[in-house]
Specification:
0% helix, globular
């Protein structure tokens, strides 16, 4: 069992930066892949980024590539999403998720989810 808690969301102006954190409980964090998803009002939850268990491999949605970076610190049981050059269209609730597939991009590939954190980007 893995429990996840996101933090770091907030209100930022366009062009600004935020860093989201995802703290995990459980002894299996270092063996899980982590993913980040987001859901804007009235839209489906969409994939943002993923990182494998060691942090050596990452994958990003085209919409955030070059602006967002995901990383992890297994000693701290924490994953991160650094978001730079934010745009109003990045406004959404951001979720972290944990699973067992090496690099997963689909919602149903992640059995464990956090509660989400709101990110609002003003123009």
């Amino acid at each position: 069992q893995v429990q996840l808690v996101e933090s770091g969301g907030g209100l930022v102006q366009a062009g600004g930066s935020l860093r989201l954190s995802c703290a995990a409980s459980g002894r299996t964090f270092s063996s899980t892949a982590m993913g980040w998803f987001r859901q804007a009002p009235g839209k489906e939850r969409e994939f943002v980024a993923a990182i494998n268990w060691s942090g050596a491999s990452t994958y990003y949605a085209d919409s955030v590539k070059g602006r967002f970076t995901t990383s992890r610190d297994n000693a701290k049981n924490t994953a991160y999403l650094q978001m730079n050059s934010l745009k109003p269209e990045d406004t959404a609730v951001y979720y972290c998720a944990a699973g067992w597939i090496y690099i997963a991009t689909k919602r149903n590939e992640y059995p464990y989810w956090g509660q989400g954190t709101q990110v609002t980007v003003s123009s």
